[in-house]
Design goal:
The complex is a heterodimer of chains A (432) and B (185).
Chain A lengths: L1 H8 L5 H15 L4 H16 L5 H10 L7 H15 L1 H12 L6 H17 L2 H12 L6 H13 L8 H10 L3 H30 L10 H10 L1 H15 L5 H18 L8 H31 L2 H12 L3 H18 L2 H18 L4 H15 L7 H10 L3 H24 L2 H4 L4
Helix pairs in contact in A: 2-3, 3-15, 4-15, 5-7, 5-14, 5-15, 6-7, 6-12, 7-8, 7-9, 7-11, 8-9, 8-20, 9-20, 9-21, 10-18, 11-19, 11-21, 13-14, 15-18, 16-18, 17-18, 17-19, 17-21, 18-19, 19-21, 20-21
Chain B lengths: L12 H38 L5 H24 L15 H36 L11 H4 L1 H24 L15
Classes of the chains: A mainly alpha (432), B mainly alpha (185).
């Protein structure tokens, strides 16, 4: 009696799901572009289950990305690109360095701050790792450790507003992006601090960096005056969004215009640079957005065969312990974050895991922050974390040697993520 | 960021002219699309602050132009092999086998692009048939739905070119200056 009840309440998860999952995994591991693999996965679930018409795919590529909030993505990417080309990004790093001069390992700390800021502006964590890595590697640190530090610093980028991850989450969960940015402030800073502190502790033991520089107010003020135009950009973006003056998209548009005007006035860029600049930004945009466009129908296809309900059912039948379930989600997210880029994870896992989070009383916003931070840890989780590979391909250090040095950072970040998960107030303190 | 875009050596003057046209046309279109988005949103912001008045169509146009930008960008990323792929496993193989896997994934991409092209033509046809218009400007939505078949035909053209390059590489003719396709050089 009970058994038949169980079976009838369990949705029918048949081969159309498992076959499609195997297909997607096989395609991805054979090196098929991620957006194609996801699109084929969605098509095959829709085709074999017949739960929704296949024309959904044709609509998703238009309606799915028809959103004002998403326009912020290319604009932030372009801002990041212009900042690099105009050299304003170096000025920002100088400020970070001047701020952290006095403390031990000031250079490392500045790198982490720079990574966080950079990535949050250029939007893509991988691009950020590359951009900052180029500048900071080989400054007294062993290469493998510097790589691990930059890889970890770049993880903080997707956690700190205005990261693209929150823009996508806002789209998927129907939340206000500004609210998410607000909720992300303290968690983002905590994760960043954990990386900085880990770096300090490691430095104390190993003595990688012997900075003789003393903190000096005069130097700091000089640097700030020298970089006053560069500092306008974070001021516009963060100030504009947090004060409620701009939506993220508008802030992005204003910041891009300002950066270009500064660049043109200071003659660090000319009109001739524009085609190349726009092409590379459009390309990055054209890499991120198709993944969103095809993750959405895949998420819908999974929902149409009741995967989220099935997962809630099977997990709550195992345990209903708040702490255990969060731990389980954390493990799933770290593994996912270490295998694939953030975007498909957010769009696909978000709607699947949210019902579970809600059954244990987690708020939507709290869950969003927890999810993004956990995915961030995945970036440097050995041996597969994406940032480790990016740094390895840039520095020619082996993934293994970078992985070893990344372990303390990964542990430190995981502790913070657990804190964020178990203490909702960290994320919700500014909300209402 | 990408300075070392893999470029195909033009084999004769006709090819050179073709690639010049293609590059400049593509760049011109991208330039216009991007500029349009930045300006239309910028003007909306100014309008709101200075005249405390905002129009529906500025936001709407930006949204639709953005969709054009996305699929144009996707096509260029196909051309330069920039799309995110997980090639940890494949990179362990020897050169020849790697190429076969690459050919396979490119054929899959082509098949999928053609499928999406077909599906999008369908929804374009339905939209024309029922004469659907946009919310703000009340002009035919077909103008914007057209971005999908256009984008995916560009993607198909570029992937066919990539397939040609891969096939030639399997047969021992390297048409590319370098195989470095990373975004970050």
């Amino acid at each position: 009696m009970l058994l038949t009840g169980l079976i009838s309440s369990t949705p029918d998860i048949g081969w159309e799901l498992w076959g499609s999952i195997i297909l997607v995994v096989a395609l991805i591991s054979m090196g098929t572009p991620v957006w194609v693999s996801l699109g084929i996965g969605a098509t095959s679930i829709l085709y074999f289950s017949g739960s929704l018409p296949i024309s959904l795919i044709g609509e998703a590529v238009f309606d799915g990305i028809d959103s004002f909030a998403l326009i912020a993505v290319p604009l932030f990417i372009l801002t990041g690109d212009v900042l690099v080309r105009t050299g304003l990004s170096d000025k920002l790093l100088n400020v970070a360095e001047a701020l952290t001069r006095g403390i031990l390992a000031g250079f490392g700390t500045a790198t982490v701050l720079g990574c966080g800021f950079f990535v949050c502006i250029s939007g893509s964590d991988v691009a950020g790792a590359a951009a900052v890595g180029r500048m900071t590697i080989l400054q007294g640190y062993p290469k493998s450790y510097a790589s691990a530090l930059v890889a970890s610093g770049s993880c903080t980028g997707i956690l700190i507003p205005p990261s693209i991850a929150y823009i996508i989450l806002g789209l998927v969960f129907g939340l206000s992006v500004s609210t998410l940015f607000l909720a992300a402030v303290i968690p983002g800073i905590m994760i960043m601090l954990s990386v900085i502190i880990t770096n300090l502790i490691v430095n104390r033991h190993r003595g990688y960096e012997r900075s003789n520089e003393k903190f000096s107010c005069k130097y700091l003020i000089d640097t700030i005056i020298d970089s006053r135009y560069a500092l306008l950009i974070p001021f516009i973006i963060l100030g504009g969004i947090y004060s409620g003056l701009f939506t993220p998209t508008e802030a992005a548009s204003v910041s891009v215009t300002t950066t270009i005007i500064i660049g043109l006035l200071q003659k660090t860029i000319t009109i001739k640079d524009f085609p190349k600049m726009l092409e590379s930004s459009a390309k990055i945009n054209g890499i991120i957005l198709p993944i969103i466009a095809f993750s959405l129908p895949l998420a819908q296809a999974l929902a149409s065969i009741q995967i989220p309900e099935y997962l809630v059912y099977s997990i709550t039948s195992l345990t209903e312990n708040y702490y255990l379930i969060i731990l389980m989600m954390l493990v799933i997210l770290i593994i996912a974050g270490c295998l694939v880029e953030t975007t498909p994870n957010i769009v696909i896992l978000g709607p699947i895991l949210l019902p579970i989070a809600q059954t244990i009383g987690m708020n939507e916003i709290h869950f969003s922050i927890f999810m993004v931070t956990a995915l961030g840890v995945g970036f440097i989780t050995p041996p597969l974390g994406l940032n480790l590979f990016v740094m390895s391909s840039m520095t020619k250090e082996s993934v293994l040697s970078i992985s070893k040095k990344a372990v303390p950072f990964m542990l430190g970040m995981s502790v913070v993520v657990l804190l964020i998960a178990y203490i909702p107030q960290i994320s919700l303190v500014f909300i209402n | 960021m990408a300075k070392n875009d893999s470029e195909i050596k033009p084999r004769n003057k006709v090819m050179a002219l073709f690639s010049f046209l293609e590059n400049s046309i593509e760049r011109f279109i991208l330039l216009s699309l991007y500029t349009f988005i930045v300006f239309s949103i910028g003007i909306e912001v100014i309008r709101r602050f200075v005249f405390s008045f905002s129009s529906i169509w500025g936001e709407e146009m930006a949204r639709y132009i953005f969709i054009y930008l996305v699929w144009f960008g996707a096509a260029i990323a196909v051309k330069n092999k920039n799309h995110i792929r997980i090639d940890v496993l494949v990179s362990m193989l020897e050169e020849k086998k790697k190429l076969w896997f690459q050919l396979f994934s490119e054929l899959i991409t082509l098949a999928f692009a053609i499928l999406v092209f077909y599906l999008s033509i369908e929804s374009l046809a339905i939209s024309i048939q029922f004469g659907s218009v946009t919310d703000g400007l009340r002009i035919s939505k077909a103008w914007f739905l057209f971005s999908i078949p256009l984008g995916f035909s560009l993607i198909s053209i570029h992937i066919i070119r990539r397939i040609y390059i891969t096939v030639m590489a399997i047969r021992g003719h390297n048409l590319e200056k370098n195989e470095d396709n990373s975004l970050f050089n």
